[in-house]
Amino acid sequence: MKIKLSNISNNENKFNSIDSSATIDVKNLIGNIHTKILVYRLNERFIARGNIKYSLELTCDVCLEKYNADFDKDFNLVIIPENLFDKNNIINDEFIILKNNSIEIDFNDFIKETIQISIPIKQKCKPDCKGLCPICGKNKNYYECSHKFINIDPRFEKLKEIRKKINEERN
Ligand SMILES: [Zn+2]
Ligand SMILES: [Zn+2]
User: Fold this and answer.
1) Are 32 and 111 in contact (CB under 8 A)?
2) Which of 24-28, 41-45, 147-151 shows the lowest per-residue confidence on average (mean pLDDT)?
3) Are residues 88 and 166 part of one domain?
């Protein structure tokens, strides 16, 4: 998404764009990226508030199946002309530096980065994914195999408890 500076008035300016991976090169993207941005002019700076919606194809860590995940991200941005940029003066807000003589604001790198950061480190197709049978390897979300996994060994029970605790702490 690119917005021409000449299209930004002093009031609230609404922009929408639909981008494909041809414009914003993101791995695993399904369909398009929908971006809505409100831009305000503030002296020589710009304030942008917006929202990005997109879907990614991820791979479940538990059952190893691919799944689709929808994302809906709000953002706040300050766009600062290069000559006014002072890195000691940046608080919290994310920003885009506007190169001298730019005629437009290019949001594409920001959008790409936002999507990349949103990819979860732990990927799970659903909260209660049953995973794979450790004996036959079948996906237990879809197949009922005859393998009962009864842990007779008390050491396994202990292990299970520890694992459960770790999982609870993670969630
Ligand atoms: Zn899964
Ligand atoms: Zn099995």
Assistant:
1) no
2) 147-151
3) no
Dihedral in degrees, nearest 10, Cα atoms 85, 89, 91, 95:
0
Q: How far is the CA of 69 from the centre of ligand 2 (A)?
A: 28
125 within a domain of the structure (yes/no):
no
Model pLDDT, residue 96 = 87
Tell me what pLDDT residue 157 has: 65
Ligand that comes closest to the CA of residue 149:
2
What range does the domain containing 34 cover?
A: 2-118
- Enter the tokens of residue 81: 């002309």
Dig out the tokens for 47 from the structure. Answer: 């304030």
Tell me if 123 is assigned to some domain. Answer: no
CA of 148 to the centre of ligand 2 (A): 8
Ligand with smallest separation from the Cα of 140:
2
The count of domains in the chain is 2
Quick: pLDDT tens for 129-144: 999 998 899 999 999 8
